[in-house]
Every structure is written in structure tokens, then in C-alpha cells.
Amino acid sequence: MTIHKRVSVLLMLLVWVLAFSGVVNAQGGGGVLRVGMNAPINLDPATGSNDPEILFNRTLYDYLIEVDANGNLVTNLASEWEVSEDGLSYRFRLVEGVRFHDGSDFTSADVVY
Fold first, then answer.
1. Of the candidates 78, 74, 112, the residue with the CA atom closest to the CA atom of residue 95
2. For the whole model, what pTM was predicted?
3. Higher pLDDT residue, 22 or 95?
């Protein structure tokens, strides 16, 4: 699945959820929204490929870069990046001051693959 198709699917799901959250609010708030889908099989964010896996991983992980609504790559946990002339090496400068939920610092060791 291409990145554009993934973004389109995520945007469609977001629009759907937002549309129905307005209905819940109009009814006085509260309640439960249940969305049925197959359980994710692969929880590795680098190799997840179907909708349940992508949706699950998007709720758990932040990424170095993101794709914005126009399909452009934008910063997230990386403040900037460089691509080598041959296109085989990528160098990311990480955002400073990021911490995990347990208080440990976010470092380059956390993103080496």
C-alpha cells in the first residue's frame, strides 16, 4: 500500500470519527464509539501493512517524520534530515527534550533500525 493510500485511508477514518463525535456531542456527550475491524497481526511499525496494523501503530508510536495533508514530508521527532547524494543514507537530527512515558530520554539508540 502506497503512503498516499495509507494517508487517504487514515484521513477518511478521521473524518468518519469526527462526523460521529459531533452526533454524540449533540446527544449530551459521553457514550462509547465502537469501530469493528480485524485484529492487527503484525505490531512492528516498520512492517505493518494493513489498516488495523497501521491504525494500531499510529496510536502507539510517533514517527521521525510525517506526511501532511498535501503529501509533503514534515518534521515530527526529527527536527531536520539529510539524504546522501546516492540516496542510500539518511541522517536525522532529533528533537531535543523528548521523553518517553517512563521519563527516560529519547535518543538515537531508540530509532536505530
1. 78
2. 0.57
3. 95
Q: How many CA atoms lie within 13 A of 16 on its CB side?
A: 9
Nearest CA among 5, 7, 15 for reference residue 67: 7
Mean pLDDT of 63-88: 94
C-alpha closest to that of 63 among 39, 102, 87, 94: 94
Buried b (16+ CB within 10 A) or exposed e, 57-85: beeeeeebbebeeeeeeeeebbeeeeeee
Give the pairing type, strands 73-75 and 90-94.
unpaired
How far apart CA 93 and CA 96 sit, in angstroms, is 9
What torsion do the CA atoms of 33, 37, 42, 47 make, to the nearest 10 degrees?
Answer: -90
The per-residue pLDDT for range 5-53, each reduced to its tens digit, is 776 777 677 776 666 665 555 556 678 888 788 888 888 888 888 888 8
Q: Report the half-sphere exposure of 44 (CA within 13 A, side-chain side).
A: 5
